[in-house]
Amino acid sequence: MMKPVPNPWISQISAYVPGSAKAGGHAKPVKLSSNENPWGASPHAMAALQAAAGEIHRYPDGTAAVLREKIAALHGLDADRIVCGTGSDEILQLLPLIYCRPGDSLVHVRHGFMVYPIAARRAGAEPIAAADRDYVADVDAILASVRANTRIIFLANPNNPTGTMISAAEVARLHAGLRADVLLVIDQAYAEYLDEADPDGGLALARTAPNVIVTRTFSKIYGLGGIRVGWGTGPAEVIAELNRVRAPFPISVPALAAAEAAIDDQAFVDDCRRRNAEQRAILTDAISLHGNRGLRAVPSVANFVLMECPQNGPLAAGTLQQGLMELGFITRWLPGQGLPHCLRITVGTAGETAGVIAALNQLVAAA
Ligand SMILES: Cc1ncc(COP(=O)(O)O)c(C=O)c1O
């Protein structure tokens, strides 16, 4: 019988698996599986969201002009060279559709963000995973992975799920080693967790280089993951291509209002950055105390910690994830990202961090 036939490269995609939000037996488990902001969003953003309710019969400004102006002012960018999307995910997904033809390739770091291989395959391109070095992106390995048909490099910096990053000098070395026709995408989803405004020099490169684009999001430190707002900045030509293919109205009226209010509240952002650093240190130290039992916290600069576990036994990552789940804490086990021996734990509030540490200590003591 005849039936609709999908493109074979689409059928090859392993669909994105979001962090779990449920734990059996717990009405309100603590969700530490999706790198969300445990302190929520700015009260100004929430008020703006509610105030926008009376306008939801209107289409939003598809160009997000007000938001782009605010982003430009905060980061010293040209608003005409910013594009906003339904999360930074929209922009990451569109770039391979613009620059890759079926049969081309793109390169990402081995233990990287799950969206990159999906975005590659959507365009019929082959995702190539470059080796890392102790969970840190290896510029030489990335450059060595580039082929004649490679069109894009995806670099999350800081990287998810490892929490590591490479320096501005290393990013510059990566850029300098690429052919001019390869687009370097620097995904700075977690950049606001660092003290510097442009921690790896990505924005500076995106201002001047003809083949660099930086993406950012309101989903992480701004605490707006639920309303889907992200943006990218780069050369005018790249932004023009993105504007051709993006959704006509990528950000809803309430989401625009909330993001505009959120970016005005940098005191909230600063506060979250400080609290995150405090709780991350507490979580890291607590994990390190179990070094003799085979647990190790990979040093993180983001809002989550990658915990290495023994390959087998009661403290193996899958078993530990289950145990933590039974105690009411949802973490992320990463076999799908080549890390079956690791759990990723999002940094929570002080209470949540103390809780997950107590649960971990209990499981270690019982093992
Ligand atoms: C590295 C990285 N980039 C991008 C995103 C996507 O963010 P958004 O919510 O803006 O689509 C995430 C979300 O987890 C991420 O970890």
Which structural class matches the secondary elements?
alpha/beta
Largest sheet: 7 strands, mixed
> What topology, given as strand order, has the largest sheet?
2-10-9-8-7-3-4
Q: Give me the CATH fold name of the largest domain.
A: Aspartate Aminotransferase, domain 2
Shape estimate: globular
DSSP summary, beta strand count:
15
Strand % is: 15-25%
- Round the Cα radius of gyration to an integer and report it: 21 Å
Provide a descriptive summary of the structure in words.
The chain has helices spanning 8-11, 43-51, 65-75, 87-99, 115-122, 139-145, 168-176, 202-208, 236-245, 253-264, 266-288, 317-326, 350-366, and strands at 30-31, 82-85, 105-109, 126-130, 132-133, 136-137, 150-156, 183-187, 212-217, 230-233, 296-298, 304-308, 329-330, 332-334, 339-346. The chain has 367 residues and is of the alpha/beta class. It folds into 2 domains: 19-40 and 267-366, Aspartate Aminotransferase, domain 1; 43-264, Type I PLP-dependent aspartate aminotransferase-like (Major domain) (Aspartate Aminotransferase, domain 2). It has a 7-stranded mixed sheet, sandwiched between helices. It has a 4-stranded antiparallel sheet with strand order 11-12-15-14, covered by helices on one side. It has a two-stranded parallel ribbon with strand order 1-13. A hairpin with a 4-residue loop joins strand 14 (332-334) and strand 15 (339-346). The chain starts with 7 loop residues before the first helix and ends with a helix. The structure holds pyridoxal-5'-phosphate (PLP).
